[in-house]
Amino acid sequence: MAAIGDVARLAGVSKATASRALSGRGHVAPDTRERVERAAAEIGYIASPDAASLVTGRTKNVGVVIPFVNRWFFGEVLEGVERALLAAGYDLTLYNLSPGGPERARVFDFFLARKRVDAVLAVGVDLSSHEVDALDRRDKPLVLLGGSGAGAARLAVDDRAIGQLATEHLLHLGHTRISHLAGHGAATSPESVPGLRRRGFLEAMSAAGLTPGGRAHIVETDMSLPGGYTAGLQLLGHPGRRPTAVFAASDELAFGLMRAAERLGIAIPGELSVIGVDGHEYAELFGLTSIEQEPGEQGRLAVEVVLRLLGEGVAADPLPDSGAPLPTRLVVRSSTTSAPR
């Protein structure tokens, strides 16, 4: 098996120079680095990550915590995270985190806190103070993309403003019987993503003089296409209470709602306007009006913050302590129109 000394002899440099050239740590002249890389490729030398970690104290591995891997938004974020980490020479260990129970406790108390990861990136997860402290005690930088966790660097869209903008779009079209399809826990967890979007909806309705319990009806459901379909049948099934517009907390919820409306013979947008959130790749196909965000780009930005906290690369924008929301935009398509007379 080839060793670093073999690479150094072939390239005509010291072992320390060969190591710096292949690890990317420390200054090495470009022509020297190229000569070392050619020598390593010629004899098939592959640097040992375990040996490098003994020297640097780094594993070049980031733990990524995510609640779903089979939903479009989280899949797009994960792809952006993976590409950015690989480009920076890092690997990732993925943890598909359940809402609670002993499995979740093991992830934070053992796997992330004691296993060899340099930092943790949590995507769309609400962390307890105990979970944040477990990482902080072991000096593992923590970055949140969405979700919550006191004291951690956090990047997020402004979900409350998203709820307001989506609802105001429907109000400006003349709708007054507007309902909201919210994610589970929106009412009981006001700082969660579903909770903040629900709050934005209620504030926009209240500003328009439309109070909850009257014309502002909310149904909580799983934030998925099947969840939107089931809740849509419930919401639209009674003609006497039927809204003329619905703000769905995600595009997948909106797709399910649109399928339920089709089954019930309700025309979109003639009888029902629908708006979602995310900018799903199928939004154009469905003609869905949506508050679009860019999950892949969000994943890349989150990795930039992780690397900044690890002392690598250029400063991220936005900075961890800036509080600047990530960008979103309203894209109007054929699923929303003026309220029916």
UniProtKB/TrEMBL annotation:
Gene Ontology MF, one: transcription cis-regulatory region binding
The HTH lacI-type domain, residue ranges: 6-56
Domain of life the protein comes from: Bacteria
Keywords assigned by UniProt, alphabetized: DNA-binding, Transcription, Transcription regulation
Name this protein carries in UniProt: LacI family DNA-binding transcriptional regulator
